[in-house]
C-alpha cells in the first residue's frame, strides 16, 4: 500500500516525504488563488467594456460586501479544517464525521439567514456604504443576485474545508476551475445577450456567477458521493446532522479570531489608502497598481500557510511533533524560494509590470516603481510570519497570531506610515511595510519557539499527545 494513503484510499498528511507532500498540497491552493483573482479581473473587464464606469462602481461596492462575507466564514471554515485534520491524524474518523455533520447544519442555517437578509436589505446596506447615487440601482440588482447565491458559496467553502482537512487539495481546485471557466464564459453572453441568451446587463454578470457556483457546487457533491468519499454523510449518518454544542463552540470561538485576522488586514489597507489619497490621484493610482501586483506576490505565502495548517493539524492529532517542526521550516523555506523568485522577477521587469496598468505620461509609473522597489522584498517576511502563524493556529492557538497581526499592521505600520509621510515625505511611507512585517515575523517565530501554543486545544476536554 502507498504509505501516503490510509486504509480505504483516504489521504494522509502524517506520512511520506514532507517537502514533496507540502509542495504538491500547496500547488492546487496556489493555483486556485490565482484562478480566483484572474476570474475577478476578467469579469471586471467584461463589465467595464460593456457597461461602463457606473456598473464597475456598482460591482466594486458589492464585492466589498462579498469580501466581508467571505472573511466572516473563512475563519470558521479554517476551524473546521483544523478539527477534521486533528481527528483524522488521531484516527478518529467518526469524530471527524461529527465535525462535518455539525458544520453542514451550521453553514446551511447561516447561509439561509445571511442570504435572506442580503436579498431583502441590499438597498439599505448599500446606502449605508455611501454607494454613489448614479450606481445605486445597478448595485442593488447585482448585489441581490449575489446574496441569493450565498448558500452555494458557503456550501462550496465548507466542502473545500472538509477536503483540505482530510488532505485533498486537488479536488476543490478542479471544481473551482469549472466554476471560474463557467463564470468567465457566461458573463459576456448574459451581459450582452449573445446568441440564444437574453440581454440582462449587470444582472447578467451576477446570474453568471450564480449559475457557475450552483453548477460547480452541485457537481462537486455528486462527485464525492459517486466516489464514496469517506467523510460523506450517508443514510446511516443522519444522526450526525445536528448542532453538537462542543464542536459548534469550537468552530465559532476558534474561527472568529481567524476571520477577524482578515478584517484587520483589510482595515490596515483602508487606512493606508486614506493616507495615500492625500497625495493626489497619481499616487492613488500607483498604489492601486502596486496593490494588484503585491496580491500576486503574496499568493505563494497564502497557499503555503493554508497547506501547513492542514498538514500540521493532522500531525498534531497524531502526536508527530517532530514532523510538525519539519513541516514548519519546510514551509518557511518554500516561501523564501517561491516568493523570492517572484520578487526578483518583478524587480527585473518592474517598470514594464507597472506600465501594464498605467499610462506612460505622468508620474504614476515612477511612483509605482518606487513603491515596488521598497515593499516587494518585504513580502518574504510576510510569508515567514504567515507560515509560522498557520502552524501555531493548527494547534488551536488562534488568538495570539491575531494579536501579533493587530500589533504589526495597526499599531506599527499605520502610525509609522503617517509619521514617515509627515516627516520625510511620500516616498518614505513605504518603509513601514518591511518594518511592520519584520516585527510580525519576529513575534510569531518567537512565540513558536518559546510560547505555550502546543498546549492549546480545539475542544474543551480534548487530550493531546505530548510534544
UniProtKB/TrEMBL annotation:
It is found in: Cell membrane. GO terms for cellular component: plasma membrane. The keyword Metal-binding does not apply. It is a multi-pass membrane protein. The keyword Chaperone does not apply. Keywords: Cell membrane, Membrane, Transmembrane, Transmembrane helix, Transport. Pfam families: MatE (PF01554). Its main location: membrane. The chain crosses the membrane at residues 21-42, 62-84, 104-129, 141-163, 175-194, 206-226, 329-349, 369-389, 396-416, 428-448. It comes from the Bacteria. One of its GO terms (molecular function) is antiporter activity. This is MATE family efflux transporter. It comes from Paenibacillus hemerocallicola.
Amino acid at each position: 500500500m502507498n504509505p501516503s494513503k490510509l486504509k480505504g484510499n483516504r489521504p494522509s498528511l502524517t506520512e511520506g516525504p514532507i517537502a514533496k507532500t507540502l509542495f504538491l498540497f500547496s500547488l492546487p491552493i496556489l493555483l486556485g488563488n490565482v484562478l480566483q483573482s484572474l476570474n475577478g479581473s476578467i469579469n471586471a473587464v467584461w463589465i467595464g467594456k460593456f457597461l461602463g464606469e457606473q456598473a464597475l462602481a456598482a460591482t466594486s461596492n458589492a464585492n466589498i460586501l462579498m469580501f466581508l462575507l467571505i472573511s466572516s466564514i473563512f475563519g470558521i471554515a479554517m476551524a473546521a479544517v483544523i478539527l477534521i485534520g486533528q481527528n483524522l491524524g488521531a484516527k478518529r474518523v467518526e469524530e471527524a464525521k461529527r465535525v462535518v455533520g455539525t458544520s453542514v447544519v451550521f453553514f446551511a442555517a447561516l447561509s439561509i439567514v445571511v442570504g435572506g437578509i442580503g436579498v431583502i436589505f441590499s438597498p439599505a446596506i448599500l446606502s449605508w456604504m455611501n454607494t454613489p447615487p448614479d450606481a445605486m440601482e445597478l448595485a442593488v440588482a447585482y448585489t441581490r443576485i449575489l446574496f441569493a447565491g450565498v448558500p452555494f458559496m458557503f456550501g462550496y467553502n465548507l466542502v473545500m474545508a472538509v477536503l483540505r482537512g482530510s488532505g485533498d487539495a486537488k479536488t476543490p481546485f478542479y471544481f473551482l476551475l469549472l466554476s471560474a471557466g463557467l463564470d468567465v464564459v457566461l458573463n459576456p453572453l448574459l451581459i450582452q445577450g449573445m446568441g440564444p441568451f437574453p440581454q440582462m446587463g449587470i444582472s447578467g454578470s451576477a446570474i453568471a456567477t450564480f449559475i457557475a457556483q450552483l453548477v460547480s457546487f452541485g457537481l462537486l457533491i455528486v462527485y464525492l458521493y459517486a466516489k464514496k468519499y469517506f467523510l460523506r454523510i450517508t443514510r446511516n449518518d443522519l444522526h450526525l446532522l445536528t448542532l453538537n454544542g462542543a464542536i459548534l463552540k469550537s468552530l465559532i470561538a476558534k474561527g472568529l479570531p481567524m476571520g477577524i485576522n482578515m478584517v484587520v488586514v483589510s482595515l490596515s489597507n483602508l487606512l493606508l489608502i486614506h493616507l495615500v489619497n492625500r497625495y493626489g490621484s497619481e499616487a492613488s493610482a500607483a498604489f492601486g497598481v502596486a496593490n494588484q501586483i503585491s496580491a500576486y506576490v503574496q499568493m505563494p505565502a497564502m497557499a503555503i500557510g493554508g497547506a501547513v495548517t492542514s498538514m500540521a493539524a493532522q500531525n498534531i492529532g497524531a502526536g508527530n511533533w517532530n514532523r510538525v517542526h519539519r513541516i514548519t521550516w519546510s514551509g518557511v523555506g518554500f516561501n523564501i524560494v517561491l516568493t523570492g523568485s517572484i520578487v526578483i522577477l518583478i524587480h527585473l521587469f518592474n517598470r514594464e509590470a507597472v506600465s501594464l496598468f498605467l499610462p506612460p505620461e505622468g508620474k504614476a509609473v515612477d511612483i509605482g516603481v518606487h513603491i515596488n522597489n521598497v515593499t516587494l522584498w518585504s513580502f518574504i517576511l510576510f510569508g515567514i510570519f504567515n507560515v509560522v502563524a498557520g502552524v501555531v493556529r493548527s494547534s488551536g492557538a488562534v488568538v495570539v497570531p491575531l494579536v501579533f497581526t493587530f500589533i504589526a499592521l495597526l499599531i506599527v505600520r499605520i502610525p509609522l506610515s503617517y509619521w514617515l509621510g509627515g516627516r520625510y515625505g511620500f516616498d518614505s511611507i513605504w518603509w513601514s511595510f518591511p518594518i511592520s512585517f519584520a516585527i510580525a515575523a519576529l513575534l510569531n517565530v518567537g512565540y513558536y519557539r518559546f510560547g505555550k501554543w502546543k498546549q492549546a486545544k480545539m475542544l474543551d476536554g480534548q487530550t493531546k499527545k505530548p510534544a
